[in-house]
Design a protein that fits this description.
The chain has 329 residues and is α+β, with helices and mostly antiparallel strands. The chain is built from eleven helices and 14 strands.
């Protein structure tokens, strides 16, 4: 069972929380830009409103100032990852108070991984067809990560290390005691992420089920969207995205697929073959970066004022931390 998602609620929450512009005003602006009627996409971001229309279909997206797109990083992403990254052109702003940036974005093929999960259902035991589809997603996702590894970028090491240290300290002070040993170990190993020879890479900041697209029939990756939170970070900080294709969350908590170990092994075999490099000690650093990325992804939440706060036991992120940090075999 997949948790229920309501696109109407997502849209209502966006306009109530982030702008004085109305949905009707945005729709009118989008229609004028592409010369066709538009309709909301089936999945909406927390800090954007997206509609689709025209032939060929294009997206028009309205983004909050805190979630603006960095055009230079988008160009870098396209140079590294090619056609799975959509072209985007800004077309000014809408709204005099709390304005939104307006973009026309290429509509990539496929549906979000979340939509695919909802359409196909979710069970711990995959049928042969489901298993093959999942393998295709895993292989393509591995190649996506390998491409970033093969294209290292200059990184603001001191600033990022200080930021990471501060966030880990906050988590150490505020998370339940069952995470204390793990967080302490990661704090001690943090300098390894900034050691000589370990790459800084372009890192997608929100590689959730809503932000990568797949072919619904084959599972092959067709797009990676919403690069608003992209940064140059030590490799592996976005590997929490891998966990999301090794299982699923429902109302009872996280469930790994029965075959998740085989799928995870496939990911790393593909990665090693693609980068054509003996990772050696870097493999351990990747594991540390993955765990730090998981903590940063699920250990904080956005409050109603768009500020990050440490999660509490009542927050959904705690189920993910328990599954990926406390209980991970």
């Amino acid at each position: 069972m997949i948790p229920m998602y309501s696109v109407d609620s997502a849209i209502s929450n966006f306009f109530a929380s982030h702008t004085k512009a109305t949905q009707q005003e945005c729709n009118k602006r989008a229609t004028a830009l592409i010369g066709a009627q538009v309709m909301p996409t089936a999945i909406q971001g927390a800090f954007s409103y997206t509609v689709v229309g025209g032939s060929p279909a294009r997206l028009v997206q309205f983004r909050t100032p805190d979630s603006d797109l960095d055009v230079d990083l988008l160009h870098l992403a396209r140079s590294i990852h090619g056609g799975v990254i959509a072209s985007s052109i800004q077309h000014g702003y809408i709204g005099h108070s709390e304005p939104l940036s307006v973009y026309i974005i290429e509509k990539l093929p496929g549906i979000t991984y979340m939509e695919s999960c909802i359409a196909n259902g979710a069970n711990a035991t995959l049928s042969p067809e489901e298993y093959q589809r999942q393998k295709n997603t895993i292989v393509d996702l591995s190649c996506f990560f390998a491409a970033s590894w093969k294209n290292p970028q200059p990184m603001d090491t001191r600033s990022i290390q200080d930021t990471f240290a501060g966030k880990l300290q906050l988590l150490a002070q505020n998370l339940p005691s069952r995470f204390s040993a793990s967080v302490s170990q990661l704090r001690n190993n943090l300098p390894l992420l900034f050691s000589e020879g370990y790459p800084g890479v372009l890192t997608h900041g929100d590689l959730s089920e809503m932000n990568f697209l797949v072919n619904p029939e084959t599972g092959h990756l067709t797009g990676v969207i919403d690069w608003a939170e992209a940064e140059i970070l030590p490799f592996g900080c976005a590997l929490w995205g891998l966990e999301n294709v090794l299982g699923f969350m429902d109302m009872d908590g996280w469930h790994y697929f029965d075959s998740y170990k085989e799928l995870e092994d496939l990911f790393w075999r593909t990665f090693n073959d693609t980068v054509s490099e003996d990772l050696g000690k870097k493999g351990r650093i990747i594991s540390i970066a993955r765990k730090i990325g998981i903590l940063f992804r699920y250990g904080f939440r956005w409050d109603k004022d768009s500020q990050q706060r440490i999660i509490t036991e009542e927050d959904s992120g705690m189920k993910y931390l328990d599954a990926f940090i406390s209980q991970r075999v």
